[in-house]
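Hello again, I could really use a second opinion on something today. My current little project is about how a certain protein chain folds up. You're getting the sequence in one-letter code plus the fold written as tokens. Here's the protein in full, and shout if anything looks odd to you:
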Amino acid sequence: LEKMTDLVAVWEVALSDGVHKIEFEHGTTSGKRVVYVDGKEEIRKEWMFKLVGKETFTVGAAKTKAAINIDAVGGFAYEYTLEINGKSLKKYMENRSKTTNTWILSLGGTDYRVVLEKDTMDVWCNGQKMETAGEFVEDGTETHFTVGDHSCCIKAVSSGKRKEGIIHTLIVDDREIPEAVE
């Protein structure tokens, strides 16, 4: 079994539908390039004379654009960088922390990852976009949905401070869930 013998890079990318694992094989003698997303082969090129370049593919339910850049850093050393939506992984994740909230919780022995996309108010739970009902309340808005037989609500309330903006809180069965840091 010669699988993964040329594995040179592994990245974990947190998207709304889950955390995806991207693996990259680069055969520096054959020029072979293989990209795996969540263990599934997305790209395979066996013989390439050009050892540097770029491989593009998509990740996750929303088919997010991704690219692996292969650059020579002197001699036979190579550097591999992952881009998501045209930004470096670091920049993408920094931006994402501003545009999404993520909560990790356990209900009846099952782990759930709930993601709020603040720009669209879409709610994702374990890779599925949820049916939601939004309503205006005295101090902001509430977005209601259910996970299993648990009633969930994301409250959006102004912080009163311009720099902080709106504070989003997940409440499940009348219990506040702390936000996760990914």
Q: What stands out?
A: Helices lie at 89-99. The chain has one helix and 17 strands.
